[in-house]
Amino acid sequence: MPHIVVLGIFVADTTFRATRMPRMGETILGDGFALGPGGKGSNQAVAAGRAGADVRFISRIGRDTFGDMAMQVWRDAGVGTDAVIRGEDATGAAFIYVDSASGDNAIIVAPGAAGKLTPADIEAEADLIAGAAVFVTQLEQPMDVALSGLRIARAGGAITLLNPAPAATLPEGMLELCDYVTPNETEAEALSGVAVTDIDSARAAGDALLEKGVGRAALLTLGAQGSLFHSAEQSIHIPAMSAGPVVETTGAGDAFNGGFAAALAEGADPVTAARFACAVASLSVTRPGAAASMPTRAEVEALLAR
């Protein structure tokens, strides 16, 4: 099977559930706490692996307890780790606040060791990247590192997928290296200048992203509204699927990206791949955690077959 390469970070997610965020200087009692694996790139690699893809991950982690957690998570999901560098810097961590009532979240990420990835680290994996069917990256590691990966992947003929999260100003020409870009509403507005509030405004943002150089399509993730696949040829709204009560939305975007990459690597047409991705994401929000919430291939196929 053609392989997927994901470039990104791993962090240990420290998740606190409460009825509201505390004000500065205030202490409140929470409803729950969990420690688990996270980081957008790692989550996406795990999602793709559980969806049946052959996945290799590129990152940096520490020789510490959180780094050991990462290696175990990747082994369990079948994610290849030959391109993961282990050093003396501490593995990163994230603070995640989850609203007890809605399941919505707010996050602070400290990348730790992965924040010290360099373009030289990426160039050392040029053969792996260039030989991929699909290359995926985000913006939690340094920008020049993501840019290096996209350049190598494009030169090698891999399908390139950028999840522009967290929202940031991109270097000139970066979108032109991307076959697909997968922003949420906030990220789409930051990149396009169009406030995304409904399907029509999502299409306007998609047009702007195509004009800025995105090669094949913009896939805007729209939370409870599902997603929008928007290319020069077609614009298709893909509703979210009902997989059960929403427990937590952490990792839903990562589930979508991992599922989309997995389906593309298998040769699915992009709209079919986007529907597969929606199924992965719809299942992920029915359970707590980020990497821990990623469904198996059998679960995704069962949902799609309903």
From TrEMBL:
Pathway assignment: Carbohydrate metabolism; D-ribose degradation; D-ribose 5-phosphate from beta-D-ribopyranose: step 2/2
User: What are the GO BP annotations of this UniProt entry?
Assistant: D-ribose catabolic process
Task: Indicate which residues the UniProt annotation says bind K(+).
Answer: 250, 284, 287, 289, 293
Catalyses which reaction(s): D-ribose + ATP = D-ribose 5-phosphate + ADP + H(+)
Give the UniProt subcellular location, in the record's own words. Cytoplasm
Coiled coil (UniProt feature): none
Does the keyword field hold NAD? no
The keyword Kinase is assigned to this record: yes
Requisite cofactors: Mg(2+)
Q: Which UniProt keywords apply?
A: ATP-binding, Carbohydrate metabolism, Cytoplasm, Kinase, Magnesium, Metal-binding, Nucleotide-binding, Potassium, Transferase
Its GO CC terms? cytosol
A Gene Ontology molecular function term for this protein is: ribokinase activity
Which InterPro entries would you find in this protein's record?
A: PfkB_dom (IPR011611), Ribo/fructo_kinase (IPR002139), Ribokinase (IPR011877), Ribokinase-like (IPR029056)
Q: What is its EC number?
A: 2.7.1.15
Positions contributing to substrate binding: 11-13, 39-43, 140, 254
Q: How is the cofactor bound?
A: Requires a divalent cation, most likely magnesium in vivo, as an electrophilic catalyst to aid phosphoryl group transfer. It is the chelate of the metal and the nucleotide that is the actual substrate.
What are the catalytic residues? 254 (proton acceptor)
Task: State the oligomer form and interacting partners.
Answer: Homodimer.
Which PANTHER family does the annotation name?
RIBOKINASE, SUGAR KINASE
Q: Which NCBIfam families match?
A: D_ribokin_bact
Please describe what this protein does: Catalyzes the phosphorylation of ribose at O-5 in a reaction requiring ATP and magnesium. The resulting D-ribose-5-phosphate can then be used either for sythesis of nucleotides, histidine, and tryptophan, or as a component of the pentose phosphate pathway.
What name goes with this protein? Ribokinase
